[in-house]
Amino acid sequence: MAVPKRKVSKQRRDKRRTHYKLTAPGLVECSHCHSLKLPHRVCKECGYYKGKEVLKVEA
Asked: From CA 5, how far away is CA 11, in angstroms rounded?
């Protein structure tokens, strides 16, 4: 089995992990009620998608 010749330093290990981070979700504004929602999904606030009412949302 392969065994490392030398210890990997903390600096080298952390440099490799620089891209492991969370990204904020890309939110868009609902065209009907102007609240923020995920793209290509029904708005949770008003129930509209592409200008049509898809869900009945009770207040």
From this structure: 17
